[in-house]
Amino acid sequence: MYHFDLAHAHLVARRSGALFWPDHAMLIVSDLHFGKSERIARRGGVLLPPYETRATLARLEAELSATAARQVVCLGDSFDDLAASSEMHEDDLQWLARLMAGRDWNWIEGNHDAGPTPIKGNHRAEMAVGGIILRHIASKENNEISGHYHPKAKLAGRARPCFLIDATRVILPAFGTYTGGLWADDPTLAAVMAPDAIAVLTGNHALPVPLGKIGRSQTKPRASSLSR
């Protein structure tokens, strides 16, 4: 875990890619992309094993259990498209309903799921908590938490999803399975993050590394769900 402060809020970047806000018992995740394999198949793309929703639900359940979170914020692109929210398998819907039960659950609108879904919970364009804005795509405003870009970084020959953190904003990695990513030092992210930003790599440990010390791969990763 990596502990840090943003706008006087104490936050914890967890090695899973989830962000925990202890004072609000709030778990924040981004880019779950439920139904990705179904959406690709529906549109005539390559067939992927249809297990990513269950794998993501299992990881989400583990984080809810570990943190005892009473509030959940999903920062957009929770569903790979609007149809995916109504095409989820009944067993997966029941699993999700069990996770939501007794919790204040908030769905932030993303670019993949920009509209109403039949899933219960609070559906919002964005939300403000303790002077911090939670939204899908980062802006130039101070004190915000966002997702969308699926940042990843390569260290010691291994690429990992990562948080990007500076004094005024946090960008979360994608929490879902079957998600691509954008290198943390890509010009798109460099235009948003401060020069002294750090990447916190996920995996066995939450590992903080200055962005300037992270190299890029020679092969550009597939930005599989950033804009399509």
What can you see in these coordinates?
This protein is an alpha/beta fold. The protein is 19% helix and 28% strand. Strand 12 and strand 13 (169-171) form a beta hairpin. It is globular, with a radius of gyration of 16 Å. The two termini are 32 Å apart.
What structural category arises from helix and sheet content?
Answer: alpha/beta
Percent range for β-strand residues:
25-35%
* Continuous helix count: 5
Low-confidence stretches: 217-228
H/E element order: EEEEHHEHHEEEEEEEEEHEE
Note the main sheet. Answer: 9 strands, mixed
Report how far the terminal alpha carbons are from each other.
32 Å
Shape: globular
Give the quaternary arrangement of the chains.
Answer: single chain
- Percent helix range: 10-25%
Overall domain count: 1
Rg:
16 Å
Strand element count: 16
Report mean pLDDT, rounded to a whole number. 84
In short:
The protein has 228 residues and is α/β, with parallel strands linked by helices.
